[in-house]
Design a protein that fits this description.
nucleus; PIN-like_dom_sf; rRNA-processing protein UTP23 homolog; rRNA processing; alpha/beta; two-stranded antiparallel sheet; 10 helices; six-stranded mixed β-sheet; about 250 residues; Fcf1/UTP23; Rossmann fold
């Protein structure tokens, strides 16, 4: 059963690596529900997660997730201790914390540009994650960690890219890097797209001249009846046999 689960995880990872440019170290966002489930099932996240994903990982969370565990009381104190050991990523709700599910969704945006994995047991958050293409989902079931199969949104996105309807994130990044290398910014492209207004100039002085009456003069015609005289030159021989200058005769 463990070998089969590992093969399925490897297949899912290769899908995200090839189609959404996921690279090591894998960044994983955790909430309190996953840490609480790991504590109950005696799962060592720091030790088992790199082995399961077969690569280096970065365990991350947000300030909103920590604040949520603090408000829930002593029942989730153990989950809070686990979550505090992870890296805290900056979220836009520093002054006004929001629920962890809302915060994690805002960290992903519409396309998950930072290539986050999400580890959660929250069904509401899971439903929202499946609407975003390219988000690997981790959860705990039967005392084991499971990497969920790609959702239908991710499959539809990959199909649209293959048909040429969309540009993949990797292609977008390469285009952006090429523009930066060439020194082309978005403002420059907007300037090139706008048409320049031509300034009014003075009229051409040659176009202001009056036209001649009568039109162009036709070429002179020669009489076909007149024949040109051919000139023949004859060479005379002298008494010594030498050739003298030719004499011109008209015919």
């Amino acid at each position: 059963m463990g070998i089969k689960r590992q093969k399925q995880a490897k297949k899912t990872l290769s899908f995200y690596k090839y189609n959404f440019s996921f690279r090591e170290p894998f960044q994983i966002l955790f909430d309190g529900t996953f840490c609480q489930a790991a504590l109950k099932n005696k799962i060592q996240i720091k030790e088992q997660m790199p082995k399961y994903l077969m690569g280096e990982v970065q365990l991350c969370t947000t300030n909103c997730a920590l604040k949520e565990l603090e408000t829930l009381g002593k029942e989730l104190y153990g989950a809070k201790i686990i979550l505090q050991r992870f890296q805290v990523r900056r979220c836009p709700h520093f002054k006004d914390p929001v629920p962890a599910s809302e915060c994690l969704l805002s960290m992903l945006g519409e396309t998950n540009p930072h290539h986050y994995f999400v580890a959660t047991q929250d069904h509401t958050l899971t439903a929202g994650l499946k609407k975003i293409p390219g988000v690997p989902l981790l959860y705990i079931i039967l005392n084991t960690m499971v990497l969920d199969k790609p959702c239908q949104t991710s499959l539809d996105h990959v199909k649209a890219v293959q048909l040429g309807e969309l540009v993949s994130p990797a292609q977008q990044q390469s285009i952006h890097s090429l523009k930066e290398e060439q020194g082309i910014s978005q403002k420059d492209g907007e300037r090139r797209g706008k048409k320049r207004k031509r300034k009014r100039s003075n009229p051409n002085p040659l176009s202001c001249l009056k036209k001649r009456k009568g039109g162009p003069t036709p070429p002179k015609k020669t009489d076909q009846g007149e024949k040109r005289k051919r000139i023949r030159r004859k060479k005379r021989r002298t008494e010594g046999g030498d050739m003298s200058a030719p004499a011109v005769t008209n015919k």
